[in-house]
Design a protein that fits this description.
Order of helices and strands: HHEHEEEEH
Number of strands: 5
Number of helices: 4
Low-confidence stretches: 31-43
């Protein structure tokens, strides 16, 4: 290899490292603040969620039972909405093409998480057929839930890394 080529490769490598270090590397705290904006504790900000349920689509022997079930269903819908806002949604999408034409398109959404400390704002009948439930979560609780969620992920990663190190140590001792 010519000296000029080696110099070019060295400068190109240095430039690539510089770009990686200055643009893509962030700490876990920076990533958390970027994806989960945390508001100062005691701030009046928080999140609100609304859930809906239709009375006639609820199971029950009487109209009163259906109303109670609709209230419960609208509350669960509001909790689902809070969970989406705190944790995000898992989206699974798939497409099927036949002869370069879209023949099937599927989209599945899932949300999973733990919500606590939600305050019931209101349960309101809308017309005669629907109930609306509003829940709110203060920002301090949102921050705590996010910290617990991210802390749990870090703890799992540390445990997994410790298991890997232990396996390597056992393997290296067996080969000796």
């Amino acid at each position: 290899m010519r000296r000029k080529d080696r110099k070019f490769i060295a400068w190109f490598t240095l430039f690539g490292l510089f770009v990686c270090v200055t643009s893509g590397c962030t700490t876990a705290t920076q990533r958390m603040e970027q994806h989960y904006p945390v508001v100062a504790p005691g701030s009046p900000k928080g999140i609100t969620a609304t859930g809906y349920a239709v009375i006639s689509s609820q199971k029950g022997d009487t109209e009163a039972q259906q109303r109670l079930m609709a209230i419960k269903a609208s509350k669960l819908d509001a909790y689902r909405s809070l969970t989406e806002q705190v944790y995000g949604q898992w989206i699974d999408a798939s497409d099927n093409m036949v002869d370069f034409a879209l023949s099937e398109d599927q989209l599945k959404a899932r949300v999973e998480g733990v919500i606590y400390g939600a305050r019931l704002v209101s349960i309101t009948p809308i017309g005669g057929e629907t109930y609306e439930t509003k829940l709110s979560l203060d920002q301090k609780t949102v921050n705590e839930i996010i910290e617990n969620y991210l802390g749990g992920r870090k703890a799992k990663a540390r445990t997994r890394d410790a298991e890997i190190r232990a396996r390597r140590l056992i393997t290296s001792n067996e080969t000796r």
